Hints:
Layout: H1 2-40, H2 70-96, H3 99-105, H4 108-124
Amino acid sequence: MENSVGFMTVFAVSGSVVLVALQAHKRLLSDFMKKVELELGTAAAGVGKVQQKKKVRFADDVIEPSSNNKEYRKQRSRLNMDRSSSLCNSQCSQMINPDEELENKMPENRRALYKGIVQSKILKGNMVSAVV
Length: 132
C-alpha cells in the first residue's frame, strides 16, 4: 500500500511538472513569435494594421481599344517585321564581311585568330553565307 501511494505521488508530481513546463513553453513561444512578427512587419492574426485594397484609376487620356485590338495587333506585327528584317540585314552584312567592324575594336592578334575561326567555319559549312 505504501508503495502504491509513493508511486501515485511521483506520478502526480511528474505530471504537474510536465503541465507547468508545457504552459511555460507555450508562453515563451508565443512571445517569441510576436516579437518576430513585429520585426518582420507582419501583424498577428487580427492584430495590427489592416491593409486597404488599392484602387486603380486610369488616366483621362486613355483611349478604349476598338474592334478587339485588331488594329493595334496589325500595327505591332508590321513594326516587328520591319525590325526583324532590318536586324537580319545588319547581321547578314556582318556575316559576309566581319572585318569592317573588327578593325577598330580588336587587337591585331585577336583579329587574325577570329578571322581564321570564321574562315574555318565557312569552309566546314557551319555558317551560312548569304549572297546579297
